[in-house]
Amino acid sequence: MVPVSWYVILSAVVFGIGVIGVLTRRNMLIVLMSIELIFNAANINLVAFSHYLQSLNGQVFVFFVITVAAAEAAIGLAILVCLFRNKETVEVDDVSIMKG
Amino acid sequence: MLKYVLIPMIPLVTATIAGVFCRYLKEKAAWLTIAGLGTAFLLSISTLFDVMGGHTVNVNVFSWIVSDTFNVSIGIMVDQLTAVMLIVVTTVSFMVHIYSVGYMHGDPGYARFFSYLSLFTFSMLVLVMANNFLQLYVGWELVGLCSYLLIGFWFEKKSANDAAKKAFVVNRVGDFGFGLGIMMIFLYFGTLDYTQVFGAAPQHLNDAPLDIAGLQVGVITMICLLLFCGAMGKSAQLPLHTWLPDAMEGPTPVSALIHAATMVTAGVFMVARCSPLFNLSPTAMATVAIVGGVTAVFAATIGLVQNDIKRIIAYSTCSQLGYMFFACGVGAYTAGIFHLMTHAFFKGLLFLAAGSVIHALSGEQDIRKMGGIRKDIPVTYWTMVIGSLALAGIPPFAGFFSKDEILWLAFTAPGPGKFLWFLGAVGALLTAFYSFRLIFVTFHGKKRLDHHAEEHLHESPWVILGPLCFLATLAIVAGFVGVPHVLGGHNNFASFMAPVLGHHEAGHHPASLELTMMVISVAIATTGILFSAFVYLKRKEIAEAAARNFKPLYNLFYNKYYFDEAYDDIFVNSTKEISDDLWKKADASWIDGVVNGAAKVTQALARGLRRLQTGFVQHYAFGMVTGLFLLITIYLYMK
User: Fold this and answer.
1) Quick check: B505 pLDDT over 70?
2) Is A98 part of any domain?
């Protein structure tokens, strides 16, 4: 029986990797993937505690999160495609036109 | 009723039309305003007949201000005093309008000029027809405004602009007192209506006196003195007279209408109108009399040595206004108003004639550059002689009757009467002298014209000479409405005015005394004229020798007692210095420093903070994550 704290640690590690990926990578595709990692870190947490507390609520949440994440990825990729068509780049540094 | 409303409204309407459409009307504006003024003139005459038939009016046309206890109406008061003023104002204004057709011909501001003239006439009519103090004040300020506009009519001339501003500012000083006086009337009487104020005035004689710098001043006295302040400004009495000579920068018809016949007499009119108040305060009366008497002599001495034809007449106006005031001051309001009327005619005439001379000489105003032109401009010459004879007080011209009545009533008045008579007599001598100095130097002797003026020397057209002749006629006959009893007349003017101004009796004096005084005053005037003739026609060197030998006195007169210089030093320059300090120290360094400082601080802050805003979303996200991390850490530690 794996103790729940291991799941939580795994989840924190995955979340950390995701955040660092979002903050440091310049390629937007990688940034999107990092965001997926953050989502999944949350999912691991939800499933772990669902099992630990013997409640299905957490798992239901996870289904919704996966659905929303899929939608989010679709939109994110669409934006990415648009951006590439207009600017021929996927680097986030190149689209800083809002900079004051 | 409608007639009385129309008298001021017609000039207002024509002034508005002429003013608004001046670009389209051009020359036609003159005839429009003249038609309006003519109608007002006829209506005024008909009003005079109404009043002579005993029909006086005092109605409120509409409520203007209704606010708790402060209620003011726009009203119309037509009594004997108003009727006389209406005649004076509309007659002179009508003549000046016609005269200006010739005089202002070809001026780029032709239509504007007529619009202003009519606007002025409207203002003056509002002033004289008012039935309460606030309406009087409105008229008072409106004539001041029109005076400003007309003095500065040639606004591209700096001197004209300066003169206009000076007139306005000096009048402000007087009007400040006038405004305070009106406020005080409201404070003590609770109303501004003439009838109510004058009716209630005797009850306020015993009000607790005001303590002003340790001096106990009665309420009525204070009110009268404050009102008189306004009169001093408007009527150019010492020490607020300095604006009047400068006002001669305006076109000559303006000088004739505003600065001789009508506006400057508003002060006298106001004192006469408030006679029920002034009668209650011997102090105020004495002040009025003495200010008037001193101004009469003071201005006359300056008039002796001036060389600008219009300025001589302006000082003469100042001096004659002094006569009117001292008449009022000794209680002879009727004589004051009588002199106001005759003066309006002969002084209006003198100014218009002077304008005609200036017109004939292509704009020359210095009498030293005239001389010997009586044959070239005979009509102007003779009308000017008539005006000067009337001014000097030679019978049977109009000025004789009015001036003699003033002198006689001053002589018989109690208190400082004899002293005032002496001032008046000296003034009369000087008046006769300088007015004929003007005639002799301008029209007699050798021609001293410059080449250009001599070539264009010509008599003015009839549109200018017509009004001159009309006013000259009035200057001859206007006095006959007030022939005194001792000369076999009935003094109709005095008995006509009696219902408003009361009947001022000289007391019982033998007719021989009155006749003697009359002979003395005529003798004084004749002496002045003859002496002037002797000096300026026969022995020219006397004048120059006198100027040389009495250099300090001559300089004192010539420089107008240094009033302008003194005012410049005391008021103008010190104000300028204070303003300069305020500008440089308070405004430029302090206020600007605060404002610019605020901007600089903001700029410096922004320069630092701008670095935070990189435009990279990741930087912001980093900030958010770090912040969140810190918050959670703090939260956990707290726990």
Assistant:
1) no
2) no
